[in-house]
Amino acid sequence: EVEDSLRQTIAFMDQQIKAMERAMREHVALHPDLKHRCSLLSSIPGIGRHTASVILGELGDMSQFCDVRQVVAFCGLSPEIQQSGKSVRGKAKMCKKGSARLRRALYMPAMVARHRNPLIKAFCDRLAARGLCKMAVIGAAMRKLIHLAYGILKSNRRFNPDYRPALS
Description:
This protein is mainly alpha-helical. Helices cover about 65% and strands about 5% of the residues. The strands form two sheets. Strands 1-4 form a two-stranded antiparallel ribbon. It has a two-stranded antiparallel ribbon with strand order 2-3. α2 crosses α3, α5 packs across α7 and α6 packs antiparallel against α7. It is globular, with a radius of gyration of 19 Å.
């Protein structure tokens, strides 16, 4: 009896998840600007449609942020230094004061980007060579993904791994 009840509950939850994902896709499809921004974010290796939708839903209008540091702080991905006077100095860690949903949504894309995105792969390899632990490297990759997402949405251009800004 309990087993049947659990199976029915799981089946119902699966239906609800599919319905919400379908509603999310339909909402994005009905709004051309949202669809365009979602496709720009999806051009970043590691970020899929679902993650792009979460980023756009959580961040909203990017014009509310003056620079990428504000976006990183909003996501809770900025480093927090542990220090008390001159005697206590701990390791820096992620502050986690921002959006937990964004951090949760960026974790798996950071893992994928670490292997599939050439910019983030090189970045992660440099950090690992410096001796950073695996979780610190993943946190840095999450932060780098937000940097890329901000730049792409601000410039309104698709991801280009060979892009180098023109020097003045």
